[in-house]
């Protein structure tokens, strides 16, 4: 089949909470509507599918087969690797076999043009991999050998998702850092960009969340977390954790959450 002008996209939801899909609903420029109708050809996404059952599975497999080398694979949620992936059954395939997230990712990744992990769980395991992690949750990059573009965050900011997809559409692969994150969004720490940075330098610290002053002594992880939240802000660009009086808990870090505990310190 002739490749479509808009890239065919398969979005798999594995071991996660669908929070990144919900976050994407909040996209402003482009909107979700523009993304779906003008930019990509979304073939499969279990929250957004207009149909269910066999027709959807047919479309999914037709895309993998006929658009091999052309479709983009977006993964949300961690890959559950324990018990051969049986902690996460995605769907029943055309041969009536239960397909795990682990099997689906391994089968589809080699055929995808780009693999994009959205949210901390898909990138690095995230909350799904928190101790004691009985399901063996891991980031996509740990189970496939292809390059995975990681867009972390819990959830990922809608701009981080749409911006990365736009870059892929217009210019191809964005520059990635050592954790395979697009540098354009994760090149600086929250601390470098924070509006309370001067208070940090001046030694003006908050004693409790909600107080004025730098939140470092309350447990802020801004100094060790790379993301542009202070400039970009959330919820249609109106607020972000420190501005709301709560320390950054490092939700975009590859080590979130276990490596950043305790979140609060007071
Ligand atoms: Fe850095 Fe956090 Fe203080 Fe902002 S509030 S200056 S990110 S330690
Ligand atoms: Fe997350 Fe810290 Fe940004 S908690 S939303 S990375 S300010």
CATH superfamily of the largest domain: NADH:ubiquinone oxidoreductase-like, 20kDa subunit
- Radius of gyration, CA atoms, in whole angstroms: 19 Å
Provide the low-confidence segments as ranges.
Answer: none
The secondary structure category is alpha/beta
Beta-strand percentage range: 5-15%
How many β-strands, per DSSP? 9
Helix content class = 25-40%
Measure the end-to-end span. Answer: 61 Å
Organism: Thermosinus carboxydivorans Nor1
Protein name: Hydrogenase (NiFe) small subunit HydA
Family: Belongs to the [NiFe]/[NiFeSe] hydrogenase small subunit family.
GO cellular component, one term: membrane
Describe the protein.
The protein is of the alpha/beta class and 266 residues long. The protein has two domains: 8-186, Rossmann fold (3-Layer(aba) Sandwich); 188-266, Cytochrome-c3 hydrogenase, C-terminal domain (Cytochrome-c3 Hydrogenase, Chain A, domain 2, Irregular), CATH 4.10.480.10. 27% of the residues lie in helices and 13% in strands. The protein has ten helices and nine strands. The protein has a five-stranded parallel β-sheet, sandwiched between helices. The longest helix has 13 residues, at 54-66. The radius of gyration is 19 Å and the shape is globular. The termini are far apart. Iron/sulfur cluster is lined by residues 190-191, 194, 196-197, 200, 214-216, 220, 222-223, 242, 248. Residues 190, 225, 227, 229, 240-241, 248-252 line the site of FE3-S4 cluster. This is Hydrogenase (NiFe) small subunit HydA. Its EC number is 1.12.99.6. Keywords: 3Fe-4S, 4Fe-4S, Iron, Iron-sulfur, Metal-binding, Oxidoreductase, Signal. Heterodimer of a large and a small subunit. Its main location: other.
């Amino acid at each position: 089949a002739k490749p479509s002008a808009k890239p065919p996209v398969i979005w798999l939801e594995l071991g996660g909470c669908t929070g990144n899909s919900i976050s994407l609903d909040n996209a402003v420029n482009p909107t979700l509507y523009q993304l779906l109708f003008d930019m990509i050809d979304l073939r499969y996404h279990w929250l957004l599918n207009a149909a269910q059952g066999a027709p959807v599975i047919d479309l999914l497999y037709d895309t993998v087969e006929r658009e091999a080398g052309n479709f983009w694979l977006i993964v949300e949620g961690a890959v559950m690797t324990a018990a051969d992936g049986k902690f996460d059954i995605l769907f029943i395939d055309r041969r009536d076999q239960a397909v795990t997230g682990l099997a689906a990712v391994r089968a589809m990744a080699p055929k995808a043009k780009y693999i994009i992990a959205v949210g901390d769980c898909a990138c690095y395991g995230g909350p799904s991999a928190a101790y004691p992690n009985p399901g063996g949750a891991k980031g996509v990059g740990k189970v496939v050998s292809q390059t995975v573009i990681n867009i972390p965050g819990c959830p990922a900011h809608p701009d981080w998702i749409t911006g990365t997809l736009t870059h892929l559409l217009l210019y191809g692969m964005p520059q990635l850092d050592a954790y395979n994150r697009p540098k354009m969004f994760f090149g600086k720490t929250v601390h470098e960009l924070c509006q309370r940075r001067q208070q940090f330098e001046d030694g003006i610290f908050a004693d409790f969340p909600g107080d004025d002053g730098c939140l470092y002594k309350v447990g802020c992880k801004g100094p060790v977390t790379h993301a542009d939240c202070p400039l970009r802000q959330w919820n249609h660009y109106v607020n972000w954790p420190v501005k709301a009086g709560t320390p950054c808990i490092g939700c975009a870090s590859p080590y979130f959450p276990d490596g950043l505990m305790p979140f609060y310190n007071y």
